[in-house]
Design goal:
This protein has helices at about 5-10, 30-35, 50-65, 70-80, 295-305, 310-320; strands at about 1-5, 20, 25, 40-45, 90-150, 155-160, 160-185, 190-215, 220, 225-240, 240-285. By secondary structure, it is of the alpha+beta class. It has two domains: about 1-80 and about 290-320, no CATH class; about 110-265, no CATH class. Helix 2 crosses helix 6 (about 310-320).
Length: about 325
Amino acid sequence: MKYSIDDLIKGGWNPVPVSVDNTEIIDTNTLKFVFRRFGERVYIYSADEIAAAVDDIGTTWEIFVNTHNNVISKMFNAFNTEYKPLENYSMVENGNDTNTIQNSSTGTLTANNTDTVQKTGTVTTETNSTEKNVDTKTTETKNTGTVTTESNTTGKNVDTTTIETKNTGTQTAAGGGDTSNSVAAFNDTDVSLHDKQTTTNNSTRTDDLTESVTNGGEINTTAAGTATVTNDTTEMITNGGEINTTVGGTSTITNDITDTNSISKSESTTTTENGSNTNEHTLTRSGNIGVTTSQQMLSSEIFLRVRNQISYYAVELFISQFTVWE
């Protein structure tokens, strides 16, 4: 049986939409609108039943869409490519410039330092001192008492002698001196005064001492008689005078010292630098190279958009393959 496209649409045929990458690009209403342009074309089906014919053309259309999806997808992407209609020349150049940096340097640092310090010269120390001692000490010895000697047949000696020693007086010591240091400069034979120190010593001692010794006891003898001795004597010794003492001398020290300090140092360094620099650049050229006028390109753009719509392409291809003229 023969069923026109209009009859099939009226009978309830709703073509499944066309999708590219799960995105619907032609919906059912658009397809029905385009199919009506070919309403007089007929679809041949074996059964005399419009419902069965609707199901059959629907299955045929769905198989057609799946088998031609790759071609439809490429055409869809081509029609949606962005470009400038009045330009027939477009070029984009991308480039990368990579510069590799590799630097290596090795250096050795050697240092030898010697410091020598020599100390020479003469240090002279001169000492002059004078000391004076004054002694006015007085020593007094005094004997007093009575010695009685009685002699009889039994004999008896009684000794009550008292010896008293007394020291009185003043002892003074005075002295002083000068201490001088003279120094000769480096490689110089003349000696000059560096520093001088004067010392004065004064001391005084005063004595007032009394020492007493008393004898007491009895001595029995066989002699008879009595003898009495009375002591009353004083012995006094007085010291007087001065003693001057002078001390002088010179001490000389000669220095000849050499101090040497040596330092040796060696250092080696190696420096390596690796890296790269990448520069990206893009060059874009577009326009009209002059072989086609702008009017011609505009006319071609209008014809392309009107003639080659993706929906008309899919429908016309299906109609040409699965329908005939009455």
